[in-house]
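Predict the structure of Endonuclease/exonuclease/phosphatase family metal-dependent hydrolase.
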Amino acid sequence: MRGMRGIVLTALTVLCTSIAGSEVAHRVPAASVTPSAGATPSAPVIPSVTVPPVSAMRLLAGPAAPADLEVMSFNLRYASITPPNSWAERRPVTRALLAAERPDLIGTQEGLAIQLRDIESDLGADYDSIGLGRDPGGLGEHMEIFFNRTRLTPQRYGHFWLSETPEVPGSISWDAHRVRMVTWVLFTDRETGARFFAVNTHLDNVSETARRQSARLIMDRIAAFGPVPIVLTGDFNSPATPDGEVYRLLTAEAGLRDSWSAPRRGPAWGTIHNYEPLIPDGQRVDWILTSPGITVSAALINTHRQAGQFPSDHLPVQARLRLPS
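Done. Here is the predicted structure for Endonuclease/exonuclease/phosphatase family metal-dependent hydrolase.
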């Protein structure tokens, strides 16, 4: 079994780093036809067949059961217009990634309105999203939550800002470098009837004080949601280690569980790469945390790219989970 696991992980690494989500056209030879006497043979008709994108999660953990919920946290990187790594260059790679994985729930960070419209269009009619720009007037980066509406039905939603005045749009505190916020949605799972809160955030990249205070505020808000299960996605700008204060607050104190503790995992990578070579066993700053009652069967860090182009300067993280009945 140990040798087989190594083979599977190697295959997953190769898939994620080279062909995951790509579409390859294969030539299928037409049936042989014998021309009539004296006729000029015509060129055979060779139809193209498009191979569907390959899902890294499916390769790792097999097909999902009907009750399984596929979740992704993805810092998109804002829609820059300057090459290299502009949104125009990254959008096709993002489209292929999402076509391959088809998560039921996607918590995104850094997306701008025009970029989020592109993603919603690329995801197709089955998807919808909820979000708001973090700056006054609803402008700026969103903590947009995308969801497959054939699977999930939103019951209510809201936003709060990571500041001393969380109900004031655009408010900022604790020496934070940028305005930071949370978007949350209460969903009903159409497959199982279970309800859960999806909570999505992006903590400050400069101030440790802001990250710590933001984590405490999130803890308080989650506690106020009551006994309904929680799925927390985000870029926490803090390492997922026991001595990381944000991680300790949200796991050891708030009682959430890191999906990376799943029994089946893909290769470990640092989740921010800045378009540089990937770092094996590097810092995980992008997490999916869940309530204890949620079962997580598989987790991976998706290294999808096409022709060397990554969809973002962060790697998306994924988890396959099951809500309590």
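The radius of gyration is 22 Å.
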